[in-house]
Amino acid sequence: MSDSEKIVSLKSARNKTKEVKKEVKNEEKAHSQELVYCSFCGRPNTQVVKMVQGPGVNICSECTMIAVQYLILEDKIPSAEAQKILDIFWSKIK
User: Fold this and answer.
1) What is the separation of C-alpha 30 from the centre of its chain, rounded to a whole number of angstroms?
2) Is 0.85 topped by the overall pTM?
3) In terms of residue numbers, what domain contains 69?
4) How many domains does the chain have?
5) Exposed/middle/buried for residue 51 (C-beta within 10 Å: 0-12, 13-18, 19+)
């Protein structure tokens, strides 16, 4: 497997970040909640299920699950329990 095949890109989601941030500024005035943006897709915590904050980096639940799914599927044979977790998560997002 080449190095380029090991990289999952969310670049297209970042292009939407500027539009989302403009919309969120209006929401920010209406809500007193502190806004935190996902470092991967750029969505604010008001538009995702959960946000995990780390030192200088944040990741939303959707980006986390994309990463987990990628790592599990990389082995080509996900365990039944891992697949069940993925199915439950994605069914709740829809």
Assistant:
1) 24
2) no
3) 3-93
4) 1
5) buried
